[in-house]
Amino acid sequence: MAEKWIEVSGWVNATRVVGRIAFLEVIDGSELTVYTVVVKRDENPQAWELAARAKVGSAVSVKGFVPDKQISKRGIEVRAREITLVAEPVDYLPLDPSGRTPALLETVMEHRYVALRMPRQRALFRIRALAVKAIREFFEERGFLEVHTPKICGAGAEGGATLFRIDYFGREAYLAQSPQLYKQMLMCGVSKVYEITPYFRAEPFSTSRHLNESWGVDAEMAFISGPEDVMRTLEGLVLHVFEKIRSSARAELNELGVELKMPRAPFKRLSYSEALEILKSRGFDVKWGQDLGSDEERVLGEAMREEGYDAYFIVEYPWEAKPFYIMRRGDLSEAFDLDYRGLELASGGQREHRYDKLVENIRLKGLNVDSFSFYLEAFKYGMPPHGGFGLGLDRLIMVITGAQNIREVVLFPRDRQRLVP
Ligand code: AMO
């Protein structure tokens, strides 16, 4: 291999001077690549002077050669011919950008923009971006239309308790908890849609798996014959993302120390009643009809792992535990959840598409039919059977990267305490 001319603009993550040689560890801010810039005083006194005095955290531009024989053990070695100091820090960095000294999550959240100079941080957010790309690819290949529905709404679909209220020119409005109502309305004219969107929810608790602004991947498909059609699509999507990350993010997974295993497929279909049985045998007493809490989810995850399943659907939920838009089947419903090792990743199901039954469902849930009249209107004009799901993007990235806290995989998380940065 011959010498190669290279120009790198980026940040100095570490500096070292050994005798008459100065070393700068530079990252260029895109990939995980680290450049070790080498300057010899005898060869290039001007550049040496600058390199020897450079502060960690400085923005620099370097021009030079990548030698055919690399001496440096870390990164790509660059023999500098010219170094320009683009910007110097005016304060000490709040963390070690090389990542040799790990930073607290609190510090990372406070200074994410600098933290992104750390290899672990770059790996996390590169994987997030690659996952979104894979998600789009999956839907586009299958003829889904990407849509954008309003985030300022006149009615919520996921329960009044978690609505963020806003003043909309004197009228009460809400931030969208999910695109649920709109993606369903669209089934009156488009047969497959998807949206990658923020969810705004005034969840009152602080946990490692909830945020007040989270991201969801929503899909809705018409002319289905049952919830199984939807589950197959969701399963295909999750497998596609895992596959893509495994093949296109090797360096990133390596940086995180994650060996990403393909989940066993087809995913297990576990009925709600079976889930209660398992929980009972492990000392949990869940009343039929109740939703499963995070402790119960965790224990179910352990039981499923013992059977060799990381990912599993919980099906045949009681209707009373599910929202009004889900189709009823006696006391049961056509809803499902998708869990991965005890963490709920998604929920979905077949919807009620028959106008009269939908009105009845709204009443049965004790909701005001008038507030949903704009939604119900769409069910008057030939609404086909349909279903869909909402997949928590942040949670998906958590399980792929092995992050223990959802805040790790969101650049600027919004939780009950955090409104800036
Ligand atoms: P659900 O309310 O279960 O369903 O939300 C779907 C998925 O979104 C993620 N999620 C969250 N992640 C982090 N913080 C939160 N506060 C938060 N809330 C939800 C979870 C969850 O499984 N409209 C239905 C979906 C559908 O039926 O299509 C819905 O919103 O991973």
What key attributes describe this structure?
421 residues, alpha+beta, eight-stranded mixed β-sheet, five-stranded mixed β-barrel, 27% strand, elongated, binds aspartyl-adenosine-5'-monophosphate
What report would you give on this structure?
With 421 residues, this protein is α+β, with helices and mostly antiparallel strands. The protein has an eight-stranded mixed beta sheet. Strands 1-2-3-5-4 form a five-stranded mixed barrel. The two termini are 46 Å apart. The model has no long low-confidence stretch (mean pLDDT 97). Helix 4 packs across helix 6, helix 4 packs across helix 7 and helix 4 packs across helix 12. 29% of the residues lie in helices and 27% in strands. It binds aspartyl-adenosine-5'-monophosphate. Aspartyl-adenosine-5'-monophosphate is lined by residues 158, 178, 180, 199, 201, 203, 210-211, 214, 216, 218, 344-349, 388-390, 392, 394-395.
